[in-house]
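Question:
When you can, review this sequence-structure pair and walk me through the tokens.
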Amino acid sequence: MTTQDIYIKQGADFQRTITLADANGQPLNVTGFSANAAMKIDTFSTVANVYIFQTSLSNGQVTITMWANSTINIPPGEYQYDVLIWNNVTTIRVMEGMADVDPGISQT
């Protein structure tokens, strides 16, 4: 698992691609896996606001995306996020960290 902070500009598209490797450094075979990524104010928060990323998984990589029409609705601040991949046998947290949402000024 990798820990990496991400920075999201409010009102702008966000996308990050994570390369997944096995113990030998080879691209991880993700055939049969699904992915999920989400963020919220903190892991123990009882607040219902959980923000979901779109995910795609192929060729040993998982891509997380949040479009501008979603980021515009996220209050600026620090959040925690994680990215999971899973199949019918195992679940792996491949990345986690802090997500800093910076306020936007201009809007489309």
